[in-house]
TrEMBL record, chain A:
Keywords: Cell membrane, Membrane, Transmembrane, Transmembrane helix, Transport
Major localization class: membrane
Family the entry assigns: Belongs to the binding-protein-dependent transport system permease family. HisMQ subfamily.
SUPFAM superfamilies noted in UniProt: MetI-like
Pfam family, one: BPD_transp_1
Name of this chain's protein: Amino acid ABC transporter permease
Membrane topology listed for this record: Multi-pass membrane protein
Source organism per UniProt: Phyllobacterium sophorae
Localization (cell): Cell inner membrane; Cell membrane
Domain ABC transmembrane type-1, residue spans: 19-207
TM ranges: 20-43, 55-75, 81-102, 148-168, 188-210
UniProtKB/TrEMBL annotation, chain C:
Signal peptide region: none
Gene Ontology molecular-function annotations: ABC-type amino acid transporter activity; ATP binding; ATP hydrolysis activity
Domain ABC transporter: start-end pairs: 2-235
Alphabetical list of InterPro entries matching this protein: AAA+_ATPase (IPR003593), ABC_ATPase_HisP-typ (IPR030679), ABC_transporter-like_ATP-bd (IPR003439), ABC_transporter-like_CS (IPR017871), MetN_ABC_transporter-like (IPR050086), P-loop_NTPase (IPR027417)
Name by which UniProt lists this protein: ABC transporter
Family matches, as PANTHER family: AMINO ACID IMPORT ATP-BINDING PROTEIN, GLUTAMATE_ASPARTATE IMPORT ATP-BINDING PROTEIN GLTL
PROSITE patterns named in the record: ABC_TRANSPORTER_1 (PS00211), ABC_TRANSPORTER_2 (PS50893)
Bilayer topology annotation: Peripheral membrane protein
Organism of origin: Phyllobacterium sophorae
A GO-annotated cellular component: plasma membrane
Coiled coil (UniProt feature): none
Protein location: Cell membrane
Pfam assignment, any one: ABC_tran
Entry's family note: Belongs to the ABC transporter superfamily.
Amino acid sequence: MTFDVTILAPHVPFLLKGALLTAEACALALAGSLVIGLIVAALRTSSSVILSRAAFIYVDLFRNIPFIVQLFFFFYGLPEIGIYIDAFTTGVIALSIAGGAFSSDVIRSGILAIDTGILEAAEVSGLSRSVIFRKIVMPIALRTSIRPLGSVFINLVLTSSILSTITLNELTGSAKIVASDTFRPFEVYAVLLIVYASLTYLVSLAIGALHRHLNRDRMPEVA
Amino acid sequence: MMRYTSFTSYDFILLAQGLGVSLALFLATTLIGLFVGTMWAIIRFYRVPVLTQFITFFAELLKNSPVLVQLFLVFFGLPALAKINITPVEAAVITLSGNTAAFIYVIAVSAIESIGRDQIESARVFGLSRWQVLRHVIAPQAVAFAIGPLTGLLVNQLQVTSLISVIGVVDLTKIGNILNLRTLKPFIVWTVVGGLYYVTAKLIAYGGARLEQRLRAHTAWKGL
Amino acid sequence: MISVRGVRKSFGSATVLDGIDLEVHRGEVVSILGSSGSGKSTLVRCINGLEKLDGGRITVDDFDVSHPKQLAEARKRSATVFQLFNLYPHMTAVQNVTLAPIQVLKQSRTQAESAARALLDSVGLGARADAYPAQLSGGQRQRVGICRALAMKPSYLLLDEITSALDPEMTAEVLSILARLAKTGTTMVFVTHEIEFARTISSRIVFLDKGQLVVDLPTGQFFAPDGGMSKPRIAQFLSKMRKD
Ligand SMILES: Nc1ncnc2c1ncn2[C@@H]1O[C@H](COP(=O)(O)OP(=O)(O)OP(=O)(O)O)[C@@H](O)[C@H]1O
Ligand SMILES: [Mg+2]
């Protein structure tokens, strides 16, 4: 029984390339989830029964079906209907759609928590519904839900490892290659585990900082 | 050749088998995870030195890393390190149980905290033994508190089981893969597979809600 | 002119406004008095279109508030100050004040901002213009609320118990601003429990009781022994309020 991580040294650049791909996919999927999450949360809180119902069905479906099944649905299904996109794009789309379902739930509770008096003040001042949503509802909901959104994002990072199953050599995919090249799977995956855990820890630190920044007005002033 | 690309009635049996494997592993790992996670929480409650710190760290590591990587570590890594043989199902059981335990641990810890050390300590003053305190004071309240978050966790863990298809366990997702390759009808295959997962998840959520209701009614009745 | 004609409003089976008639002309300061639950807030919320009428008609400068298209015009002519301020928590004082002028009146940002700073300055908040609501005292927040309303250059200012969440010192800050506004001819509909103050600034006082407008008199007559005070309900209300 030997445990020697130094044998991984020559493979670090290759793994870093994978990590970069993971970072890119997660960043894009984060943006995608937020956009989808906002739109779906707006639909779910809208007064239209049909729209809120449709939004609910979307959230319910994508929250209750395993991500890998969703991923295969897109990866094998899209070419079937003539849409040929690469694994990276497919992965980002699938991650965004799944992440959007989770974010929309979080954003929705942020919206529902907004003091109705604030919305009434906006309404009587003659602001249009779209301005109220963009300038008041959205920023307030986003900043109150930044922590739960952070958890959604951390989950997104962890879930992105599943993209390795559609031939994408992101961090986990690259590690698989290194593991079979070196015949040292234990070292490779143990290190990978630590890397992911550290990555999510850094993300949670960043979220804490962002939360404090967005809610800075509630802190006592320095001056 | 065309014959092979169409669906046959045997495919239903395949799907049912796959679902059965998924469910069996889900149930087994849930029970093991429930037991292990609760043990961890109890160790933490009694502040066992070293072990508590180790468990806290280990649970954090499991919660904050991808299950897929954990699976690879157990299935590919452990045999290479310890020169032992591990079957895909064994690897799946070990990994999913450990992962579930980490999340159960968190729920159990907050359930115990919700009861409060004071209440537990005061029960001991009345001369109840450790085991009696656990059995009659902590457990009923902790279960009532935890059932909601637990349901959410289980719905999630059912989905996590789909990853074991990647190391070759022939669960529902793996059957999906097999049918997908043979029929080349990805939309139908993955819609059916997704639908089966969806219905199962809904049943778990429904069962959890029912159980919560019954527990609530029970405690309300006891309170009279 | 704000015209309220035969307005009725109920919540479920409870009738809250039971046939209200009221006119407010430009330049008037009309105070609305009445015990708790008499329907004062509901009346104001009907005027600014936050509640749908169950009967009757309200127009603001001839724009019917029950008509969706006209409501937008009606709302441009009135502005509301709220009891609980209702400031936008994520915006600074200046941003609170400039949002509607920029978005609704289509003012340029620089124009709206210099107007907002001048307004805030005039209520003694020049130095706090860039503070967030959470960093301001209650009295300061309500002064921002007043500026936010005034920035829309409304013909009518609707004020619903705007000092009841404030302590006496802060109340005085806010009331002094209203007194100044009254002097400059701002039209106001003023729901209040501050009777003495209402007496000094109002041109007219109306009294609501159980959803009905029982008295509508010029201020002098309202407080005269043979005017409003001759009604036992009002005499009782006033003596109770004065004791508090
Ligand atoms: N949205 C609502 N749903 C149900 N009942 C309501 C609603 N708004 C007001 N009411 C009821 O209508 C009545 C009048 O309320 P309103 O707020 O207009 O009184 P008010 O004169 O402003 O009282 P206060 O001096 O306490 O502010 C009260 O009995 C109140 O409970
Ligand atoms: Mg009121």
